[in-house]
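Subgroup meeting minutes
Present: P.N., E.W., G.H.
Scribe: E.W.

1. P.N. recapped why we're keeping a running log of single-chain structure predictions: easier to compare across weeks, and new members can see raw inputs and outputs side by side.
2. G.H. added today's entry (76 aa).
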Amino acid sequence: MLLVGGRLTSNGNSTIRGAIISGLNVWLGMTVAGKTQLNGNKTYQYDSCIMDSVSSRLTASLVTVRDGTVTSYPLF
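Output recorded in log:
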């Protein structure tokens, strides 16, 4: 599960199993500048089993990353 407060920029090739949600700062009344950009070849596959597993552990492991780059790892 990848939660993004502002906009998401993803370059290159990637495969994501789970979910990505961007623009969450709008819920706080903030403006999200620009548009989400997805460049390259992408495969996004929603997986409810992974989402259930992540959400059950979510409250103990939330991390804020400001203007950062996050490396994704496969979930097995």
